[in-house]
Amino acid sequence: MREGIIYKALSGFYYVDSRGESFQCRARGVFRKKGLTPLVGDQVLFQIENETDGYITELKPRSNELKRPPVANINQVLVVMSAKEPEFSKNLIDKFLVIVESFDIAPCLIVTKKDLLNDEQIAVIEKHLADYEAIGYRTYFVSNLEDQSALSKILVDGINVLSGQSGVGKSSLINAVKPNSNLETGVISSALNRGKHTTRHVELIQVDGKYLADTPGFSALDIAHIDKYVLKNCFPEFAAREEQCKYRECLHVNEPACAIKDAVQSGDIMQSRYDNYLQLMNEIETRKARY
């Protein structure tokens, strides 16, 4: 029996890295009976059948998991946005950050295409990123993500997941760190101001001993799993102040003596963050009414 990590799942096969060796594995039928599906990122025990093949016999407990895209045991999500083409959007950033926070995973905010901006535009983006750093987020502003030394500083030990708008350079990054991957890069749609999805499956790629995953589907921005009480805790600057609210279950919308609304008024919480919170709250309430 050997131990390893699933680094790719494709067409019913699970590719397991075990001490630098790769094995193509099937999952035992017992997983189907238990309603379990192995995911990329799973730590597994497997039985070797021959030099290159085997059967997965056990899944180790997961620290977390995403269904879309299907990845387990994530240590950091890189929320990648572009400064231009497609245009920088704090609304989209906040939505991605909320989704990542809802799974209790650490996000890191990266803005690309710095080289397409003039000095004045760069200063504006840097001010926005300083505001996010004040909340506690790690941020990076880069021309591209293909510089190995810069990327190594951004990645943390374990599994790092790429997320963000299509067309921001995620596939270009994967091609840079794994030249033989030949991922198709997306063409920007001027009508929709976003790229076309190009990635076909989830795969972990080793970068300086750390894992990096490209993740199709992580631009769907699905918040169906988030209710209004989870939402308010997905804004760290809200959670840090909510004990000062008059009402214990304060949702920071219409309640009096709300510390979050006071902090918005004083400028201690970004107005844009609060506006995006209200927009997401409205989406959740509209969804509840519809169903």
From TrEMBL:
Its EC number is 3.6.1.-. Residues 72-219 form the EngC GTPase domain. Its cofactor is Zn(2+). It is found in: Cytoplasm. Zn(2+) binds at residues 245, 250, 252, 258. CDD domains: S1_YloQ_GTPase, YjeQ_EngC. Binds 1 zinc ion per subunit. Residues 63-221 form the CP-type G domain. One of several proteins that assist in the late maturation steps of the functional core of the 30S ribosomal subunit. Helps release RbfA from mature subunits. May play a role in the assembly of ribosomal proteins into the subunit. Circularly permuted GTPase that catalyzes slow GTP hydrolysis, GTPase activity is stimulated by the 30S ribosomal subunit. Monomer. Associates with 30S ribosomal subunit, binds 16S rRNA. Belongs to the TRAFAC class YlqF/YawG GTPase family. RsgA subfamily. This is Small ribosomal subunit biogenesis GTPase RsgA. It comes from Macrococcus lamae. The gene is rsgA.
